[in-house]
Amino acid sequence: RTLLAAMWLQLALTITEDKEFQACKFCRALFEISTAETGFRSHREFCSDSCKTKDYRKRKRTALRLLREGRPLATVALELATKPATIRRWRQNARSSTNKSKKGSS
Predict the structure, then answer these.
(1) Which member of 23, 76, 84, 101 has the lowest number of beta carbons within 10 Å of its beta carbon?
(2) Predicted confidence band of residue 72 (pLDDT cuts 50, 70, 90)
């Protein structure tokens, strides 16, 4: 009935049920991988939707910065492990929003 007892129980269950843990791609926190109700599918990369969104926004920001610096699109895609079509779409959307803001200020 204490936190320590609960932690010991969780450890025992983890060992006996042969659970696996994986580090979140964004924050590096560990989360359970299993087929049980409390676990996540084996190919999950993030511990939460929040980390998934933060990773997406960071990759997008980085891609646009690298493209502005003159890096080739294919190189940026490889470096960020992101499909070239996705990088192209981000670049196109960034250009469109820049053009809209320029027209609005005239």
Answers:
(1) 101
(2) very high
| pLDDT for residue 105 | 62
Return the structure tokens found at 71.
């890096």
With a CB cutoff of 8 Å and minimum separation 6, the contacts of 22 are: 30, 31, 33, 44
Indicate the SS3 state at residue 70: coil
Give me the mean pLDDT over the 88-106 stretch: 80
Q: Does the CA dihedral 84-64-23-33 come out positive or negative?
A: negative
106: tokens are 């005239």
Dist. CA 14–CA 8, nearest whole Å: 10
Question: How far apart (Å, rounded) are the C-alpha atoms in residues 13 and 47?
Answer: 20
Cα 35–Cα 38–Cα 44 angle in degrees, nearest 5: 60
